[in-house]
Design brief:
Bound molecules: tryptophan
Number of helices: 18
Structural class: mainly alpha
Shape: globular
Order of helices and strands: HHHHHHHHHHHHHHHHHH
Helix content: over 70%
Strand content: under 5%
Largest sheet: none
């Protein structure tokens, strides 16, 4: 889809292709690495429930909004606003998206690099007969080292760039059809093993028994930011993908399928991780290393753990790849359109620039760790600014655009082409994008900066 000259717009061939590509983008490190890690930091169940509420009230309507904008404009994220709202500042929403893509991919590639390293460690049986403490220090030594994680990150970036240059359609469809279900199967096995460990109950309580008094303004903002991050919303990825969706596709079904798949996979990851976290005496608030430290302990004790471990980290890396290409695509499309570069040149330029920032992110785990901004190292800073600031603000403008500028009639016309949307459903959707989503986002942000407290 992406390697065709503009003017000859490709589209997804099948209904499944659409869901596959959008789900391939949505399901990634966000679900398996980031969700358990931040749920652990922000106290577990209360975070989970707030996150689920944001997915329903904000994620679903914003996802439908992005697809509607993309399919009706037949453009990428910037072009879309230019076509639908010519001569207005709306196109700056696209610029915000490029900035977010840049920052996200810089740290995303680092984590994907760790995952590549864990494929190799699994093959070498590198966790065998190691204690939980030794597994922890294995991870810390890796990420603090100045060379290896940088090289792995660059390998991952080159892989992503290669796919974006060659064209992403076929690879994604195939991956999603076969490998994503396999990822789910492995996660289910991991969950079974994890919940049958001694001491597992505390982990399930941590994940599912909310104590809302523990929830901080930071936790609420992170739940909001993560709802955007995990569904690939707020920066135009799904505007671009929406533009490749055929007119007879039922957008509402697509949105529901992708959201359910994404959410189920995140919860499975949580069930695989937290019981084991408690069973092995790991701190739930361990941070970005949580899955890399917890899962090797589980594989260790599982029949067939050697094979599971290799397969798991391969699938995690592939899931990261189908997400990273959707992020890179946003930057590439921007360079292509705004600077009139070819696809290949745009991809190479974008990859180089992002990788430079990525190297800094990787080094900020070790040699550059003394450099902090607002108390965060470079890696955490990129994550924080993109997920907690740029994506929610982007999402807010996307909701406002569809609610107030694009309007009910056009939404109805676009959605009705491939499906039916009852008047009542449309009214709920319009109410969510006009009022609930933007107001909720504003309240969460004001609450965080202390201008509004409860
Ligand atoms: N959703 C992906 C994940 O969970 C990451 C991702 C891909 C993303 N495309 C995006 C995040 C666009 C924000 C915006 O791993």
């Amino acid at each position: 889809m992406s390697n065709l000259p503009s003017g000859n717009r490709d589209s997804f061939s099948s209904k499944f292709g659409v869901i596959a590509a959008a789900a391939g983008s949505a399901v990634g490190l966000g679900n398996i690495w980031k969700f358990p890690y931040i749920a652990g930091v922000y106290g577990g169940a209360a975070f989970l429930f707030v996150y689920l509420a944001f997915i329903l009230a904000i994620g679903l309507p914003v996802m439908l909004s992005e697809l509607v904008i993309g399919r009706s404009s037949q453009r990428n994220a910037f072009g879309a606003f230019k076509v639908l709202a010519p001569g207005t500042p709306w196109r700056y929403v696209g610029i915000l998206g490029v900035a977010a893509a840049f920052l996200i991919l810089s740290f995303y590639g680092v984590v994907a690099g760790w995952s590549l390293q864990y494929i190799s460690l699994s093959i070498q049986d590198g966790f065998h007969s190691k204690s939980p403490d030794e597994i922890t220090s294995l991870f810390n030594t890796l990420i603090e080292s100045p060379i290896r994680p940088v090289i792995l990150q660059l390998i991952f970036m080159v892989l992503s760039a290669g796919i974006v240059i060659i064209g992403i359609k076929k690879g994604i469809e195939k991956y999603t059809k076969i490998l994503m279900p396999l990822l789910v199967v492995i996660l289910i096995f991991l969950c079974i093993k994890s919940v049958t460990l001694d001491g597992a109950k505390a982990g399930l309580e941590f994940l599912f028994k909310p104590d809302f008094s523990k929830l901080s303004a930071d936790g609420i903002l992170s739940a909001l930011g993560h709802a955007f991050f995990t569904l690939s919303l707020g920066m135009g990825t799904l505007i671009t993908y929406g533009s490749y969706i055929k007119k007879d596709n039922n957008l509402v079904n697509t949105v529901i399928n992708v959201t359910v798949a994404d959410t189920v996979i995140a919860i499975l990851a949580g069930v695989a991780i937290f019981p084991a976290v408690f069973a092995f005496g790991i701190a739930p608030s361990e941070g970005p290393g949580l899955i890399f430290i917890t899962l090797p302990n589980v594989f260790h004790q599982m029949p067939g753990g050697y094979i599971f471990s290799i397969l798991f980290f391969i699938l995690l890396s592939v899931a990261a790849l189908t997400s990273s290409i959707s992020i890179l695509e946003v930057v590439v499309a921007y360079f292509k359109e705004e600077f009139n570069l070819g696809r290949k040149a745009s991809t190479i330029l974008a990859t180089i620039l992002i990788s430079i920032l990525g190297v800094l992110c990787s080094l900020s785990m070790g040699v550059l760790s003394p450099y902090e901004f607002f108390g965060l190292n470079i890696f955490d800073l990129m994550d924080w600014i993109s997920a907690n600031l740029l994506l929610p603000i982007g999402g807010m403008f996307i909701a406002l655009f569809v609610g107030w500028y694009f309007g009910r009639k056009k939404v109805q016309a676009e959605v009705a082409q491939g499906g039916t949307m009852s008047g009542a459903f449309l009214s709920i959707f319009m109410f969510l994008v006009k009022f609930i989503a933007p107001i909720a986002i504003a309240i969460v942000m004001l609450n965080k900066i202390g201008l509004l407290t409860f």
